[in-house]
Amino acid sequence: MSEKERINNFINDMANKFNITALRAAFEFDTAYCLLLDTSKAMKFAEEKIRGEYGEKKSKEK
């Protein structure tokens, strides 16, 4: 998987998992990447920030 595909998958996963827009997830990733300059660390940092700010969606409404 290319780096671009990996990042796109991460952004889409975060958007779906936390019920936020892909643009918001991309912003959080981009901000983290600018600070850390490492894709894996940026993904982890962005996920922690998104989790703290938005929390996980309640179990899918039935």
- Low-confidence sequence ranges: 58-62
Terminal CA distance: 34 Å
Strand content: under 5%
Largest sheet: none
Radius of gyration: 12 Å
Structural class: mainly alpha
- Alpha plus pi helix count: 3
**SSE ordering:** HHH
User: How many beta-strand segments?
Assistant: 0
State mean pLDDT (0 to 100 scale). 90
The gross shape turns out to be globular
Helical content, roughly? over 70%
Care to describe what's here?
This protein is mainly α and 62 residues long. The protein is built from three helices and no strands. The protein has helices at 3-18, 22-36, 39-54. α2 (22-36) packs across α3 (39-54). 16% of the residues are buried.
Secondary-structure topology with pairs:
Blueprint: H1 3-18, H2 22-36, H3 39-54
Helix pairs in contact: 1-2, 1-3, 2-3
